[in-house]
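Just curious. Protein, please.
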Amino acid sequence: MFLENTVNHKEQFGWIEVICGSMFSGKTEELIRRLKRAQFARQKVEIFKPAIDVRYDEEMVVSHDANEIRSTPVPAAANIPILADGCDVVGIDEAQFFDDEIVRVCNDLANKGIRVIVAGLDMDFKGNPFGPMPNLMATAEYVTKVHAVCTRTGNLAQYSFRKSQNDNLVLLGETEEYEPLSRAAYYKATMREKIRAMKVKGAEDISSKQNKPNV
């Protein structure tokens, strides 16, 4: 359960909150909600996102439902501490795209008394832990896992299935490239993709043999 109030108010250390889940699960929406509440309380808030994320806007952090908050794009995690100096709350979106240094950065900020709120994909399109997210989740005081709704079954979805054939680990996209799937739907979809790939390879091998010139 997520708690915003600490019991011992004399303790000066901050903490880390991680919001994770699949594509279209509301991670950024929840991040923005918490940050705007902090702003309303007149706390000094700074928000960062990786410079490569320009899907909706170059400077704004924008959720899929068009909720937004101004942010600072940074090329690497090492840029954050200098820009976050004097803050009460630091928000970081799309943390899976940052280098592993983001883990140390978040812990250093928390050790200085800053509340750090991080949002990111916990798994890549292959269903593997994504970048620095596992280490962030392990060192965070609070972890909130949000879910999308499976587009094929209507059940809770925790996987981000890539519909395109692009095999790059990082591929920015929306509903054209991704859809949220439940475990069962994701397993069936990946099995179909494997069978399709085997058939294509088999057909190519047969074609290659048929076109091979006789010696």
In short: The first strand starts at residue 15 and ends at 21. Residues 152 and 206 are 35 Å apart (CA to CA).
